[in-house]
Amino acid sequence: MASTTPQQISVSLDTRIPLEALVLQRLHRLPKDRQNDWLRQLVLTAFQSECHVIKSEQRQPAFSNSMRKSNTTSYMYSRHSTPIAKLQRAEAVAGPPNCPNRTELPNPFPVNKAHKPFTHLRRVIGE
Amino acid sequence: MTELTDEKTTDQRQASIADDPMQVVQVGLDDGYAYTKVALPDGRLVSVPSRARMGAAGVTWIRDVEQRIFEYETAGTVYSVGAVDGEPTQFDEYPGSALNRVIVQHALQEAGLSGRSLHLVTGLPVAAFYRGDGQQRRQAIQTKRDGLKLTVEPVVAKKSSTRQALKASIAFHEVIPEALAAWYDFVIVTLDDGVTLDADRLNAPIAIVDIGGRTTDYVVVQDQGVVHGSSGSLNRGMLDLKLRVANLIQERFDLHELGEQIISRAVDTNRLRLHGKDHDVSDMVMNAKRELVERLYAETRRKLGLGVELDRILFVGGGSAALSSDIADWFPNQTIADHAAFANARGMLKYLQFVCDDASKER
């Protein structure tokens, strides 16, 4: 994989599998010109997450796998308002990322059942 | 052409919230002038017509399962809700009225929330929520907030020993602008394992057009703020269509009065049954629809222009679903929301679950 030219991969997603159907649904909601970039980020994020899992299993078995830094444009929280991960907007990705070191992981959010993740959106309504 | 059917949108009508009955339930409730829609955290969406009248039903139901009219008492007055010829809901005070209160209680009962304590978010039309300068109408908001917290007791017939109907109590109630609720639904995306904010949607300039029963609401959101110059409400909606059809029917058939349910059925089916005989009224429905669509189109152009600076124009509300073919080509960048009638209720639920603070103050 030393080539500097872009490589294309082809993946078939099965709409009978809920998570794959969700990926397709999300993809189709995006404007066409952003779809490839979003897919690229999705693949890289997943790969990075896999690297984290491998590293934590090797070095920090007790470290919570649920608190991970990733490159995406979203913020993700659990259904029950317990934060899973704070995810940050990706910068341009020049090539396949290396597995990040343990020290690059962010501090996990404090677990607070009463915390609601998007309270800042109340401002939209105004005073 | 059906804005919403009188039936639930799911077949899990009596499915209970599989929680501890003592646990508070979060509810998004869009108590519109034509239909009252409920969104629940387990994904169920429930809709009932906003149809009630003062007074007892005057019907004895031999079998509980056949019961289609339900009675509720609030402030010493009994109301009948369900399959009745409802009193008009198109008046300014409706959101804080007893009529609204009993219809909301009925919707909560139909959603299987009998006896539960609730945290609730509802809405007001944009023009009822904001003044022209963007300031909130605090008095109207407070009136609505307080109104729904007044007690409504289900009246259970003495003969009916099997039916358990306990009031659903509202412990917390927040009010937000109706079309803006649909924006929250749009930007907060729930997945199987969590919830995300869609950053692309969050930052894009977008207009929400909410075609409802009495009003059509407009909200433009840009940089996470409401653009008040392009937002507001038009006092036109699907109930105007029904009123117009009622007038045309009265004129053609020389009738003095017709029940609200029969008109509703005529609009939905294009057929009117009089003296045991069906009459085709599709031309009247079509004419009334054309008049409404023209009025909505003119106002939409006035508010949004050609929409060139907007990334998207999102149509929501029961009217958007019912008029989908008539509004299909208004803008190149338009979309009709999935289950458009429930977009506000879903957004209200998401606002309650992920945005507003209901933990520290139950008001």
TrEMBL record, chain A:
Region feature (Disordered): 86-113
Protein origin, superkingdom: Bacteria
Protein name (database record): Uncharacterized protein
Lineage start: Bacteria, Pseudomonadati, Pseudomonadota, Gammaproteobacteria, Chromatiales
TrEMBL record, chain B:
Domain Plasmid segregation protein ParM/StbA N-terminal: 68-182
Residue ranges constituting the Actin homologue MreB-like C-terminal domain according to the UniProt record: 208-327
Protein name per its UniProtKB record: Plasmid stability protein StbA
Organism in which the protein naturally occurs: Nitrosococcus oceani C-27
